[in-house]
Design a protein that fits this description.
Elements: H1 29-37, E1 44-48, E2 51-54, E3 56-62, E4 67-76, E5 79-88, H2 93-106, H3 124-131, H4 139-150, E6 156-159, E7 169-173, E8 178-183, H5 201-224, E9 228-233, H6 238-266
Protein name: Very short patch repair endonuclease
Biased composition (Basic and acidic residues): 32-46
Region (Disordered): 25-46
């Protein structure tokens, strides 16, 4: 049966949840949107003055009409903007997202991004990944720190978990022996977003493989010293990452409390 995205496919029943809902265990939202749009650089809207904003597609079910509508959403000057794109009628969320991105592009709602002349990247995808982790205080790091701080979590920033080991973590909970690293997709070889560079390919392959090996060595070194290592990709859902970190910290503190309590009982207190 042809699918046109024009609605009307579900005449006497509601669409299946798999047509619009994210399934448990699915790829992170950013990864899902990147794949559906055909790349992260293909998700931009024009804000004017040469500015671009990263957009996403939201699917909404309207039960009264049994229709699924797709909306383009982005942030501008601190406010969420939204624009209707089309109705979609595939039986899978993956296909409906892809169709919505296709329609948004066909309607001229998206802005094309181009490589600046001075860029050394081989493609827009590689440039986006390379810019994702330029050093400390990256955007994902700042957002994650803010989310944790609002939850009452206190930590040290950009410091060595072990003083005599020259490895710095982005967030450190010293008393709990938890080290958090926020990894950029390009520099750390993300399995979802890393795309090998074609310019100076041998150099970049050696560089990224070296970074991966260093990450593994860091994990092993810290684990051997009794530390818990948590790695967060820049594309991860940061609310979920904050929850994962908070749970790890609270588990450590709960275990420490139980050990202390047991010690009090043994000593007769």
């Amino acid at each position: 049966m042809p699918q046109t995205g024009g609605g009307g496919h579900w005449k006497d029943r509601l669409p299946p949840e798999r047509a619009y809902k994210r399934r448990v265990g699915a790829a992170a939202p950013a990864v899902e949107q990147d794949r559906a749009a055909g790349g992260r650089n293909r998700r931009n809207v024009d804000l004017g003055d040469g500015r671009l904003a990263r957009a996403s597609i939201t699917l909404r079910l309207y039960r009264s009409t049994r229709r699924i509508r797709a909306y383009l959403r982005w942030s501008q000057d601190g406010k969420t903007e939204e624009r209707y794109v089309c109705e979609v009628e595939f039986d899978s969320r993956k296909q409906n997202l892809a169709e919505a991105w296709r329609q948004a592009r066909a309607k001229g709602l998206l802005a094309e991004e181009t490589l600046p002349p001075e860029s050394t990247a081989s493609s827009l995808e590689v440039r986006a990944s390379m810019r994702g982790n330029r050093g400390k205080n990256t955007r994902p790091e700042l957002l994650l720190r803010s989310l944790l701080h609002r939850r009452g979590m206190r930590y040290r920033v950009d410091t060595r978990p072990i003083a005599d080991v020259r490895r710095r973590a982005d967030l450190v909970f010293p008393g709990d022996h938890i080290a958090v690293f926020v990894d950029g997709c390009f520099w750390h070889g993300c399995p979802d977003h890393y795309r090998p560079a074609t310019k100076n390919a041998d150099f970049w392959r050696e560089k990224i493989n070296g970074n991966r090996a260093r990450d593994t060595e860091t994990n092993d070194t810290l684990a051997a010293a009794g530390w818990t290592v948590i790695r967060v990709w820049e594309h991860d859902d940061l609310n979920q990452a904050a929850t994962r970190i908070e749970n790890a910290v609270r588990r450590k503190r709960g275990s420490a409390h139980l050990v202390a309590t047991a010690g009090d009982h043994r000593s007769g207190h």
